Fold this sequence. Notes:
Number of helices: 11
Helix content: 25-40%
Bound molecules: phosphoenolpyruvate, manganese (II) ion
Strand content: 5-15%
Largest sheet: 8 strands, parallel, barrel
Radius of gyration: 18 Å
Order of helices and strands: HEEEHEHEHEHEHEHEHHEHH
Distance between the termini: 31 Å
Shape: globular
Number of strands: 10
Amino acid sequence: MVIISTGQGQSRYHDRLDALAHETGGAAMTRPVQVGGTRVGGGEFTVVAGPCAIESREQLLAVARHVRAEGASALRGGVFKMRTDPRSFQGLGTGALEFVDEVRRETGLPFIAEVAAIEQVEVLAAHVDALQVGSRNMHNYYLLKELGRARLPILLKRGFAAQLREWLLAAEYVVEGGNESVILCERGIRTFESETRNTLDLAGAVWARQHSHFPVLVDPSHATGRPELIGPMCLAAAAAGLDGVMVEVQPKEKPALSDGFQALSLERFTTLARDLRPILVALGRDRAEAAVSR
Ligand code: PEP
Ligand code: MN
């Protein structure tokens, strides 16, 4: 199924988007996406957590055990990293995959990792539950076409300079290729502001949810680059009716080799989980509550 036909020109596409939001008054018409045992977009709030990059078995296990105990519903961790500086840590590559296998087995949680190039699709697909397209690759249409043929859900991050409609059109590349399991992730855009790493476009995330059938997550780790802002932005995402968040977590004893400045410590993740709970309960979106009332 094609969610929005793009074959009849750009303005027609824009009309269809507006009609879609208008028909529903912007109400939830999200089609949930199944990521392993976790349903994203079905009303419950999904918390995806893990290190920026997988660095070692010990690091990944420590983070995975902690975030699972605090109620995370999926894990993340970079295998192949897209780094701005070619001399910085590029990820363990295929050496990380045995650790991914182990944490999935032990925690029972689904794992999401970024696919940086077409030749990585097959190797990652054998070990993870969803493939992430990073901000820098949102415009890589040949990669998106290939992911249209993949049998795994795709978590599509917004390009840091992409307009909202360009983001939805990128998602359409995957859908047109035959893969309807797309989750959008707003990770901040580049603006004139320099106190935060990027600017979290929360309104844009809500717009994307109102103008498509895709679940929408928010990644305040990359959007703010500041641990002290991540918690409040997660609470805002929940209150705005978005489908979940993705955050980076790292034990503070060993600073992360990638994006260490923005990582939540295990303790901060605990605080975030505790702060989120009453909001999710009040909104009827708490996983534990939902399980009890079922
Ligand atoms: C990441 O999730 O670690 C990452 C590199 O994100 P982005 O593509 O949004 O910069
Ligand atoms: Mn990162």
